[in-house]
Design goal:
125 residues; alpha+beta; 5 strands; 5-stranded antiparallel β-sheet; rod-shaped
Length: 125
C-alpha cells in the first residue's frame, strides 16, 4: 500500500475552479451571517422590563427597540412615556421624570431607553 504513486499534479483549470469555489464559499458564509443577524433582530422584537419598583416611590421602565441601522430611539421613547403616564394616571397622579437615558442604534446595537420616574401630584396651572 505504501508503494502507491503520488497523485497527478492538478491542472491549471482545476486550480482556477477551486479558487472560484473558495470565493463563493466565503461570500455564502458572509450572506449566512447577515441573514442570521437579521433574523435575530427580527425575533427579539421590542424587549421591555415593564414597570419595576425601585425605592422611595421611584420606578424604572426600560425598553429596547428592534430598530435596524443608526439613529435615536424616538418611537420607544414615546412608548415608555405613554406606559409611565398610564401607570401614574391610574393612581390619579402624573409622571415626574427623575432620570432618562437613551442609547442610539448603531451597528450590532439596538436603540434603547431607560426611564426612572415617580408618580407625583400634577402641577397646578
Amino acid at each position: 500500500m505504501d508503494d502507491l504513486p503520488p497523485p497527478p499534479a492538478p491542472h491549471a483549470t482545476y486550480e482556477r475552479l477551486r479558487s472560484i469555489d473558495s470565493n463563493i464559499a466565503k461570500l455564502l458564509n458572509v450572506a449566512y451571517l447577515i441573514a442570521a443577524l437579521l433574523a435575530v433582530s427580527l425575533f427579539t422584537g421590542c424587549a421591555s422590563t415593564g414597570i419595576v419598583p425601585m425605592d422611595a416611590g421611584v420606578y424604572l421602565l426600560s425598553k429596547k427597540s428592534p430598530q435596524v441601522g443608526f439613529g435615536p430611539p424616538i418611537g420607544i421613547k414615546g412608548e415608555v412615556y405613554a406606559e409611565a403616564n398610564e401607570f401614574c394616571s391610574r393612581k390619579g397622579l402624573a409622571v415626574q421624570t427623575t432620570r432618562y437615558e437613551e442609547t442610539n442604534a448603531s451597528f450590532a446595537r439596538s436603540a434603547a431607553v431607560a426611564l426612572e420616574f415617580r408618580c407625583a401630584e400634577a402641577p397646578t396651572k
